[in-house]
Fold this protein.
Amino acid sequence: MKKLGIDIGSTTLKCVLLSEEGEILYKSYERHYSKINETLGTVLEQLDREYRGETFSVALSGSAGMGIAEHAGLPFVQEVFAEQIAVKNLAPGTDVVIELGGEDAKILFLTGGFEMRMNGTCAGGTGAFIDQMATLMNITPDEMNELSKKHEKLYTIASRCGVFAKSDIQPLLNQGARKEDVSASIFLAVVNQTIAGLAQGREFAGNILYLGGPLTFLSELRASFDTALMTHGVCPENSLYYVSLGAAYSGTGEELTPKALADRLREAQGKGSYNRMHPLFENSEEYRAFCERHEKASLGTTEVTEPKGDLFLGIDAGSTTVKCVLADEEGNILEPYYTLNNGNPVPLVKGYLERILRKYPDAVIRASAVTGYGEEIIRSAFSVDFGIVETIAHYTAAKRFRPDVDFILDIGGQDIKCFRIRNGAIDSLYLNEACSSGCGSFLQTFAGALGLTAEEFSQLALYAQNPVDLGSRCTVFMNSSVKQAQKDGATVEDIAAGLSISVVKNALYKVIRCVSADQLGNNVVVQGGTFLSDAVLRAFEQELGKEVIRPKYAPIMGAYGAALFAKQREEAGFPCGGLISREGLQNFVHEVRATTCQGCTNHCALTINTFSGGRRFIAGNRCEKPLALKEKSEKYDLYEYKTELLKACCQDRKEEGKPSVGIPFGLNMYELLPFWYAFFHRLGFSVLVSPFSTRELYTKGQHTIPSDTACYPAKLMHGHIEALLEMHPDAIFYPDMTYNADEHMGVNHYNCPVVAYYPQVLRMNIRKLQETVYIDDFVSVSDRKKFLSRMKEILPKYFPRVKGRDIHAATEEAYRAYADYFRKIREKAAQFMAVAREKKLPMIVLAGRPYHVDPEVNHGIHTLITRLGAVVLTEDSLSDKVEPFETVVRNQWTYHARLYSAAKYVAQSKDNINLVQLVSFGCGVDAITTDEVREILEKTGKIYTQIKIDEISNMGAVTIRLRSLFSAAEEKERRMTNE
Amino acid sequence: MPVDFTPEMKRDYTIIAPDIFPTHMELLEQIFRMYGYNLVVAHYEGQKVIDTGLKVLHNDVCYPAICMLGQQIYALTCGDFDPHKSALIMFQTGGGCRASNYLCLLRRALHKLDMDYVPVISLSFTELEHYSGFKITPFMLLTGIRSLVYGDMMLLLKNQTAPYEIHPGDTRKVVEKWTKELVGQFKENKGLTGPAMKKNLAAMVKDFHDIPREKKELTKVGIVGEIYVKYSSFGNNGLEKFLASQGCEYMVPGVLGFFQFMFANVKTDYRYFGGKRKKLAMAVIAEKALASWERIMINALKPYPEFACPSEFKKTQALAAKVVDPGVKMGEGWLLPGEVCELIEKGYNSVVCAQPFGCLPNHIVGKGTIRRLRELYPNANIFPVDYDAGASKVNQENRIKLMLAMASEL
């Protein structure tokens, strides 16, 4: 009997028909655009025509096939398993299979211990991810492949998850990085994600087979895998059909004719159920009333075609869109412009300016301002007068519509910005984390995936009968929830409505952390492109249970605010009118060059934009070096100081005849290095410390990471061990520490589970450690006496010649060095604070944990702060300056107790001091600390700012947060002195 | 200061508890009532509970918190309970993972809802907080744990009979019968002495044994993981039901082990880090008591070799030590890989490691140990599955299906 194998994946449907002899008689590969039943129906019709009445043995496979098989009662073969069957049949002798699908990545190790793996729930480095990235650049995946061939350099792009990667790529594009380079970098990110997520300690050796759509169609992706694995994999014939072939081979099929199969599938349709929510609108009257109400919200400002007097230009170069507008002397709106930036805002702004100048040949643009991610590049390109931070731009605009505004919520393409206004100034800020970018660009890509425009998508949502409840966690999760809902019979309308509601829930519960509508005040203004969608607006009002105001010009509010700002500045007498002239525009040239900075060991990947007239804009730098600034002002940066102190412990080299221990330089070793350094020195050891973390070091160890959702500082440890092994110390010393130092601030003094036990993870997962002496015994430094007796127990096991007497002396030495280290930091902090007071510099406590000093972990955020003119302090430099106090949460981790104390200090201080909390992606403890720190600060009216960091950090987003903080703090300061 | 739970409240307040161990909760409820506390388990499930949790909690907090605290807050706000006559109770182990903070998060959530007046009681061994009208005496604690032994036994037997029962529903009836029987005994202050346990357990095993069963080969699957999602079907999207539908017999190690694990940790901590002798002495006593009850359970199973019987805890401990150091105590600590070893040695080669997405201890003792476990047991087929408010069931079930397909190959 002929065998039919059907593989229904998340994006495509694959079907093969085998003859009795196993020959392929028929095969098809279709994108199903989530219309699985229709697509499958067409395929079956065709089979029915060709093989009328003939019975096949049918089996299904694939992630979407699972539900269908279940409802229709058809045999199902798990897809990875099916693949394995096919490989055995078609490519015996294969050692490793790598398959990328639409939303799943799979690796099969067939020899040397049979293992099959799929990516976890938090992973997007797959076909859908590549599609999304291509959409972002406005090209097709095939074009991406072609472009990638011409790449010159590679950027580091987060390989953790799709959303994260997206927030790396967007700024790269906005800064002018070449699409060739970005394309190749995206492929590399996919490769890294696959290895980091799925290798889990296995080596890729022998015959490697590449399967699935992306690896079949994209030669450069294969090449990227080849390079990373240092091998040459093969993409076999029928590489798209292995899963469906496996299903056919499996021999579990049920005997059916195509027609009978089609009937069965039709009957099974919509059998599932999903969580439903209320429709957005019950009927069209409701919708009409809603529209009329919002029509009225824009009164007071009008759009005109004939300007009254001179003009003021506002530009908002956002992450995915460009918005431009002119305001006349009365503040009327002229020539609003809103478009997708397709990865390069410069030509769009140029086009806008040309059009304006053509249309209003006599107009005078008196002043101009730009805001948004692309602020700097646009400012250099067109010599715009002012650059302002988005929060101020949005507030300026919202105030124009509602002078009594209490709360502003702006959902843009990539960012959610919310701020509460009190007494005419920004009081608190809520910005989304990179990982919850459940915003506009997500809706847009989703609409795109269904072959719809954003407007069509929004319209569909309005009358959905049973909106799907999709949760509010993260966009990658949402993708799979959508997949499930479709399987259970949700219509495109229901999904569109569900997604609109998700965006709102994400903003309300995840970003603002709002429990009741009262928290937001009476006059809530919503703006940003995402609120153009009536569905999103309605969902927001429904969820909040309150009517809000959406200005008619919601998407261009940032630009309009910038124009108004320029006007105010001009009126206040600031020098203006520098905007590029007509002639300048005619001769406009824009060149982009990618290069690697040789200024220091960071080797930043720079993108250099050169414009006519010699104006330059450099992006990607962590410090000022490549900018070649003339005036070098003194920096007051405690992160630098701590680094210097630690560097002093990293000078040892291996010496002949002297025993040595190796210490991996990460996690808690960032604080305890002086302790252990003194300890082992006193015992006569050389202390070999692994080098400061770098991306290369991380890559070296990524194949042994067992859990890809752990925090980056932990994952870096794998690289540190690899580096240490190359240094050949006599032993590697990395003790487990359930408890940390007891600073008597809380009820206990734990380390977090990851810091406490990561040494065990390394032992279990890095095989090479078995070839060396690895000391990961349990130790605590909180009790000196117990520490001593414990070390007397441990050390002789490994170093029989070490004497108890010496351990005693070494212990004393270690505790002295540790105290010294803290004394130095705290003295330095006091010194910096004195300078700050004297020079009237703002102070920022960049509060994290000791290992956030690692340059690869903090991505140079501290330098960014000093560049903005502030003094940088650390949480541990201030934590001893407050008395123990009661916290809402259980204050039980030493590092986190310091956060609370530092926050308390800042809250009580009369100085111009603010706190910025660094949060590692994946740090579960921070879900608890962030609320507490925010509460402590807001109790006295301080502004809370959080920066989430991972493998890579989107510096554009960080800058916005910092600048928002500075401008809001300044405003508060001014208000206070006025009072 | 947290709101006190006063003796007056003890009289007419309802204490709302989350549904942690479905098989055990009804028994525990009764134990609390024996001591004069009107404890009620919030059995709420579904999206409404999750939504409540997400609304009042930081969305990155662990999924068990979203579920359990969601249940409690939902109970208070849905109208079934008078918030002015209710208190909430939450366990607090004082350990180093986030779970010790659930209680505080509950208080913060109540504060956000302007319900600060609702007392929140910390249920802990070490009395982290004091209340004028609520006290867990060591005796009450041990009584509570005794009731859990019954729960464990039912869980163990139910899992080994239900998949094979000839008349669907037989097993469920026996479970219901025994739950009713035990609650009745507890009401009369009976059933919690050593001899009574012996008698009850023997009769219980016999009842399960008498259920007509057919002989068939099923895939044997073990379930380990974070304590909440491991046991709670609400937390793990009906994992057991799914496994049953796929023709599996599954084994979930009991709750008793977790308590033994906690007492064992006091000893290890003392060895590694020093501490108070009194605490150590208490732990040693408790450990002995628990071991003796475990023995009662094992002895009751002896006449019926067809039932797989739990290993002595000491054995689990020794197995775990081959994988990780006994000092690893946060979350489920070394117990998790210990249970995996035990399951595999009993023939449950396929193991689902159920964990909340982003669970910190599970980076170490869950995913972190798999490589080592495979070195020890080359046929081990361990699949970590993440549970989360946003994780889709399709994804989870697809991975479990892969595990089952693997099982047929090994």
User: Anything to note?
Assistant: The mean pLDDT of chain B is 93.
